[in-house]
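Follow-up to my earlier ticket, as requested here are the two runs.
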Amino acid sequence: MGSAFVGWILQTWLLSAQVFSTREFAQLAVYRVYPAAEPWFIFILLPLGFTLDGGLFHVDVSAGIFGILYATVYVLHARTWKLSAFVVTTVASFLVEELWRYGTRPQVWVSVGLLCLLIALISPILTRWTSMVGMLYATSLCVLADGLFWLIFHRGVGSTVVALLTGIMSGMYVNFRSRHDQFVRETHHAVQHDVLTGALTRRGLTTWINDLRRHGVTYGIVIFCDLDNFKWINDTWGHEVGDCVLREFVSRIRAKLRAEDAIARFGGDEFEILLPMEPGTLGDEVVQRLHQAATSGSYAVLQGGVTLDIGVSMGWTQGEFNEATANEADKALLSAKRSGKNCVLKASGYSDATEPCLSVAENVDANLYWLTNIAQSLWADAYYPFVLTDAHGQIIVANQAYANLVGRNREELQGNKPSISRSGKTPRRVYESMWNNLSHGRPWSGCLLNRRKDGGEWWEVAELFPVTLSGQIVGYWGLVQDLHHAQFPEVVSREYIRWHGDIDWVFQPIFDAATEEVVGYEALARPKWGEQDVSPETFFRIAEKLRFYSQADWDCLDSLLERLEEVSWPKGVRLFLNVYVASLSDTGRMRDWLSKFYQQHPDVICVFEILEHHHGQQEIDLNHWYELQLEFPLIELAQDDFGAGEQDVIRLVNVMPNWVKLDRAWVSIAETHPESRDLLYAMTRWARAQGIRVIGEGLETRSQADMYMDLGISLHQGYYWSHPGQQLVASQK
């Protein structure tokens, strides 16, 4: 029994070694010399070797062992028509082996029939399960068949044991080889194909070209392409979005390629496309079709339904598939990118069928694709109105807030200029200032008087910025707001920002109600915007929002000097004028202004009214004020709009001005709330005790004037006494 077992082991070793060595030799030697001969080497040599084992060495090679041989080769090789030839060689070799050993006995034909039956049963099993599961089923079936044959013909148990051991060895080999071959295939695919997009790598493209050459194909179209501003996509949206864009691009291109065409990725967003063609074939239409496939429609690669518009630059040529042709296409791509991107350019120049570099999106500069994408994404639901234009000022992107602001839908705005909302009343010098800054690459802040589609006028306060690319202005973007109905972030203070309209002046008298004589005039600025009158509230609101209120104040003061040159000022009558604390604190500039003023009117007392609602921006420096008073003793200080501020009383006590002007709101408060008159009366008595004179503003009726007189407030200003006017009056008529 021991010697028999050793014999079975040796037979198993011999048969298994034949299978393993034959296949390994075929792969290591035959495949390298002549790949097509490798399967034939295995299909013929293995069955022939088993026949020699049985005929010469009297190895009991049964139908089950030949079945296991068939199953092993079936699993390790592709199921092609060549397997049909292997069935023939296997059955023929087994028939020869059986006749060699047993002659023409009936059991020989039964054995051959059994092998044919096993092959017929094994083939569908291995088709269904190509892994170790199929091999296990096939081996079990072969061993079972050998066992039945042994029981029926009393041939001996040896062949069944050898079949079992050979099946185990073959199964182990198949398992190892399957895993190894799978690893080799995956490694080869990874080397030949880009793992992200599935496109060929540089090595894969070389292999593809070599395969073409073996088939005699060497000519075609070579396209180099590059995704425009791809680095910006990665930096802005992240590499995950960038990867999605690359996959989508390759998918779009592949959908338009034939099976024999190829696309390769060399790294980043650089691709090469090769299309085998016959010499003389026109490639313009083909390349344009690929470009349109890559750029038409947005790339849905962002969450929330947000899309990106992608531009693609392509350079191409036709010729032999070699390095020289590739270099020509690469240079054409470089020229396409320098020509504005998102275009197709042939190596020899623009072909007849290829348009110059045009944007895919109509009326959109190719250089603005990157900004168009982010503007659409960021501004879609923004509260503030935003607009993006090209270098010619045509609107590319306008969010819904902007459309609502200007009173037009976005379809009307698209392709038009923001000047579609122009009212025609903004002075020309405003636009000159705007374009002088923007055309030199500087931002511009300012205001425009516009008109909506329904005819309503509105003040636009705009912050405009040039968009530059490689030192060239390619567009402009802006944040705009309605002056009176919105809150905006403060803009950066810039020296060039100023009021580009004119400033006229009117004078409203301040009366002593007891004598009905004029004691002073308040100089009131009346700004003009072209021919349009602008309220002081609008003027100063614009100045505050654009942060040029200090310059606006000085513009007013300087224009007042010009106006006062035309006025013969009444003797003994004061001049009241509003100023910002910042202007009053600029002692150097204020000295210059006062010097000019007193050269015109040396005997006029000038009363500076500190605007209460601006006072909180900067507290008055009393030391500077006292220095000015020493140099110009005829100047006085007034606290304006008393009662409208949060710290009026504290400021009144700290500053101790010469005058206090009650805010006009006190008139209605005292009328509707009589108990508040006690407060006014007490404040007036305290002020008089401190030498401070009190003026009541906003008096429009006789009853209001009488009420203030009863409270001890005899200095009045308001429409009841006189409207502001160009001329000065001496007394109440």
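Run two:
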Amino acid sequence: MPARHAGFAAVTVVSERLINRVLETYVNTFLSGVQVPLSQTVRLTAGVSVDVALDARAVLLSARAALSRNAAGLIPMTFRFYAKARLTAAPSNGGAALASFAPEVMVEADLSAALLPMVQGSQLQFGLNAAGSHLGGIRARILDGDGMPPAYQSEVVKIIQGPVVRAAVQAALNAITPQQLALTPGTIPASYNFKQMKPLQPGEVWVDAHIATDRIVYWPLQGALALACDVAGFTHGVPTDLHDFRNGADLAAATNLDFMQAYFASAVLPQMRNAFLANNLRIDTVDFLRFSHRDFDNGPADYLELGLSASVWTHDFLHFIVAGTTKISSVDVTIPAAPYLYNHKEIRLQFGMIDVDLPDWVDATLFGLSLLLPPVTLFLPTIVDEALHNALVDAASAANGAGSKLGADITQDLKLPGTAGPTYRFTPQSLWMQCQAGERSATMAASLEPVSQPQLTVALADANITVDSHIDRQEIRRDNGLSDSITARLVLPPAFVQRKDPTLRVRFETALNGTVVPSFTRDLRLFGLQVSQVLGQPAPDPLVLVIDTKRMVSPTKTDQEVRISVRLYRSMGGVTDDLYNGTLHVLSVDPRPDDVKPYVQWAHRTAYYNNHRKVLVARRSKIHKVPGKGGCRFSNQYLLPSMRSPFVFVSLRRFTGLPFDLVDIEANRDKVCPYCFFGGPDKHPGTSVTSKVDRTGVIGKLINP
């Protein structure tokens, strides 16, 4: 198999999954609101001449790539549009409409896309080159016909797949610039820049080398895209030799070590002379940086070697008496080291045996941190070029005695070029170097995933809470009552969704003690005309819900629970797709000790088997009377030692009073234990309660049957 670098200076292979994530970010950032007109009128003649008029504008929802190796080197893409259309059928000779429908339509356009490289700082990014792309087939799908007869549905499909709509789709795609629709993050260098300050004189430049890349190549693979660059005079790669070496990672970058060695020998090392690495140690010249492979008794090894000539000033007084100076000149040092990845976070160096005796006070790691680590960071994908800068700063700090740095931390949170978000996290997964003939390359594989997620925030009178989606049940407990007002807000990170996507909806649901409160429950479109606007009222913010607690229950009443849930979802043709769900429970509690409270409710995790598959679920008990105060045999389960296990326990709540009025106990019997409160599931309270017939625990209270 050809070398990973295929003869290029550097190669990066990006997964199809990451490319589609990048496409989603750029569509949501720059292409929100891109529309294609579908309006057209056709005449049907089947006994009676009828004009069928379609009125719609399809909105771009997504662009996705399906990568496969092909001789043309083009990227197969699909652009998806959605329309809530209006179809009207009327007699051709005039008159009232015969029928009207509101179908939901999906339009899919295939594009064989060419890419155009763009320089973003020191990185190269690839975007859609509409002028060099070819529009393929256009497909129409009726998601919801709204009762349209088959003949009308057939006409809608013919209209959308016809030449008029095709020309409109072509015009919409031609208007997209490469900067608006990039397919890759910055992955290969636009140039190789190596700049390093003198370790003990950080204000003075020690070396500053620059070599530009001159040939940029992209090549589609099966499920991945290879991106490569050449440097004139050093490399000339073969595109057909490019292959996928990611091993399942989001991206992997391979650097040609022959190029790197030649680049340093010609442009970098000649400048690295006469600089103090420490107060008593000066680098006179750096003679070579080479990548070597050797077979040792305990196995093969791939490593890099740094050769230099140094001068040291000894602390030996006898040497001063004999030589008349404390300086020892022309100490030739060869330092072998192998880079490795530590804890999926840092690049570190494993040093071999140095072939010269240095004074005891000379720390060999100083050479590695100051001289070896910066070149190693050139193995990184250029998307983390900031890590190279940080590595050089850290190395200089270590040389100046500013703390021990064992390596360079290259994890990084970043935003794609030109976007405000979402935030992506670069996490290295592996680093390996091969220096034998036929495969002289350094390869790093990494993941690059968006970490920004929607958040449900809830503001009370005295607190602001952000819901943590990793917690099974998040509760806010307030003493002596609920907050007078509760404001729930769904915060969306930049470019998480298209703000003009007509299929997106936000549902807020409020429940008091398990019962949904309709006045504070709603389901609205994220974008578009709301029903209240049609009625002449102000448009509500679909991302904000303000709850007036007094309209549900007295804010000072204890033992109340308000559940606030939010759901962000997409609805098309009767099918929904959840994008985010968040829930927060606000509880009012009696601050007195639990041992004086007569009621209890708990939640725990348990397992059941579904078709021989073990499923873990959280279950919440009914409200019980505590043992010794009228509780049933099961009411002591929360006291069992097994319930205290963190793998079992979820929550425990003690009540002073029931969360509803006692006169409503029959209407709320599904919330309480039938044995504790009624004597059994088939028992019902009478019209009154006496000391002899007390099934509620409250003697002498009138209870409605």
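The only thing I checked on run two: The CA atoms of residues 620 and 664 lie 21 Å apart. Let me know what else you need.
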